[in-house]
Amino acid sequence: MITSQTQDIIPEKWYNIVPDLPEPLAPPIDNSSDRSSIELLNSLLPREVLRQEFTFNRYERIPDEVREIYAQIGRPTPLFRARRLEDFLGYRGKIFVKFEGATATGSHKINTAVAQAYYAGKEGIEEVVTETGAGQWGTATALAATMNGIRSTVFMVKVSYEQKPLRKKIMSLYGARVYASPSTETPFGRSVLEKEPGHPGSLGIAISEATEYALEHGIRYLVGSVMNAVLTHQSVIGLETQKQLELMGEEANVLIGCVGGGSNFGGFTYPFIGQGKEVEAIASTAEEVPKLSRGEFRYDRMDTAGVLPSVKMYSLGADFVPKKIYAGGLRYHGASPSLSVLVKNGIVRPEEVGEAEVIEALQVFARTQGIVAAPESGHAIASLIRYCRAHREERKNIVVNVSGHGLLDLSIFDRVGI
Amino acid sequence: MITSQTQDIIPEKWYNIVPDLPEPLAPPIDNSSDRSSIELLNSLLPREVLRQEFTFNRYERIPDEVREIYAQIGRPTPLFRARRLEDFLGYRGKIFVKFEGATATGSHKINTAVAQAYYAGKEGIEEVVTETGAGQWGTATALAATMNGIRSTVFMVKVSYEQKPLRKKIMSLYGARVYASPSTETPFGRSVLEKEPGHPGSLGIAISEATEYALEHGIRYLVGSVMNAVLTHQSVIGLETQKQLELMGEEANVLIGCVGGGSNFGGFTYPFIGQGKEVEAIASTAEEVPKLSRGEFRYDRMDTAGVLPSVKMYSLGADFVPKKIYAGGLRYHGASPSLSVLVKNGIVRPEEVGEAEVIEALQVFARTQGIVAAPESGHAIASLIRYCRAHREERKNIVVNVSGHGLLDLSIFDRVGI
């Protein structure tokens, strides 16, 4: 939400870390000889997104229309000093929170959805399509499409569709057509349902349906994380943070975020890391999905179905099936190639956090700062608390990115009787 | 959420309209000769709240501690120009939105809860208690208590307790003890349950339980609306709006808000009205609860049970039982005495809006501005849309107060198949 005095905090350019990485990114490769999934990207993604995916430009101008939508959906998001949390932890330095939960859709996902939908619309495309698991990405796509004056279709994993009716409602409210996947809308969905009418769905199936639907209807497919272009769009988080800190007369020493595919983490930290700032960067992952600390750095499929190309990244294997954990957004088997390179080179330090610690962190954050954070963001808060407890006497400035609010995920507290 | 550049928008003083009303307020009176409910206030309310209730001071200094908490819970809330809504409506003037849904608890209620809990704590009281229907007020009380380092107890109308488990969860997360009312915690609750073990509860019963509990434990009771002190605390909304408009180089011509008890409406409009600004003020109420347009201006009980005094106000009768409408926060039978005086004197114009129009307004607002507003606030948005459609060629600046977000009230869209 914009007020005149904060408008100029929204950056004019996105930052792309690719040219500043300590080693070159390995190129994506096809994962089958039947059809080229790299060629397929030409028909799937908006042209400008594809160009940004492979560019070595350090900066990309944010179109005026996208900046204007950023302002309407709540950018700049707040950066505030969490004094009560500092007091509670007895930490002698300062803690700052960048709160992406303050966007209209409640998470950082909207930052790239708005850009991708804009580029699709610019090409004359009248509809975009995507898949969604927990619902955050689908919600962002739905609003981004509406705000760019185009339609949207979302294939939502059936089990989530049934368990998260509120998410489905918000997407519909924004004007999206939402199908439980597997659906009867695509040949692939129909083939799955033929074999198993009660199939609960999976992200892999939903991706296959969404991409098939895109190709069949000649529309564009939006990607929620992992890819370079997505992380570039998300750099708006870190760039705003830098400007906000500067206005406060502060510098960042430690940056903490959570990692699903890596987009909120990359968007938040890369402007600092890439510009050679001396920062400690901590990437918090779920104990149950420890791709960065226990995955292998190798070529692997981006999606289970293998529709998209394979990329070189830390991965637990595309067929890795994580436990049905409380933080759906962190279940992804791999991590963005650029983030993987930074971890491999010791520039980003991964850390695993388990459920009990996350729930405690969410409670502490709610009671000290009043914010009900998303379970995914709870990992970043848990890593922050861990850091402060281990370094109480330090006087560093820690900035934590709280990627979303958790108002629609309160069921995670069932287990502790809240 | 605060950023350094916006901190000074939070006012240093609250504004109290009482000395600026066009006619004096009639004093509250006891509604039975058995016990004086006015005297009872001395034991129920924090002393400073009671003083503010009866003061003729035009301004009250906001304690530094309260201002600091205001900053932590999201003040100043955003004021933004709703350009997409303007375009959609083809309105040639400007529309500004003040968004109280951006506070940590998602509505304006926290503005007074923080102040009341602060004054209770200042007196050495270690716990506060209140009742809640839909849950917004209980949530605000729970967080306000926590942030002031004291405990809280909330009696939640049983039917809401069962239908709105998320609200109960948030209150617990903030550290409140939440009881379904009627409960076994108070003599009154036990007497109700004895007669009817499956009693669904009511706001009247919950108020009786909360006040009884306060007296029994020697703690303080917090009031959510209607009273002068509450509207004074809520003036932070209008005072911020004035400063934000000034920073944008704009003036307000039309102010629109919704009315339950009158606290968000009064808080928003009074700083403009009381300072003699020429503004058109529109108070939007639910068609099913038309107290301002079809109520009687007379002494009536503030609460069904008659624990609190009677005041002179527009009322449908304390025993009026509204339909179980979609906007729980607007079901109150009366309206704040000061607001009633302003309506009676033609300074505030009441307007009734029905469910279909509200649902359409919420959809329009979500699709144009991305915000899912509360059903209560949907009334204000509906009145805004009505105004713009009737005055398309006007070039007035309209400011609408969106008092809360509706993320936890999405079920209202069930009826239209969303």
UniProtKB/TrEMBL annotation, chains A, B:
Cofactor(s) needed by this chain = pyridoxal 5'-phosphate
Lineage of the organism: Archaea, Methanobacteriati, Thermoplasmatota, Thermoplasmata, Thermoplasmatales
Specify the superkingdom.
Archaea
Q: Name one GO molecular function term.
A: L-serine hydro-lyase (adding indole, L-tryptophan-forming) activity
InterPro entries from the xrefs?
Trp_synth_b-like, Trp_synth_beta/beta-like, TrpB-like_PALP, TrpB-like_PALP_sf
Outline the subunit composition.
Tetramer of two alpha and two beta chains.
E.C. no: 4.2.1.20
Give a GO cellular-component term: cytoplasm
Q: Which residues carry this modification: N6-(pyridoxal phosphate)lysine?
A: 109
Function recorded in the entry: The beta subunit is responsible for the synthesis of L-tryptophan from indole and L-serine.
Q: What is this protein called?
A: Tryptophan synthase beta chain
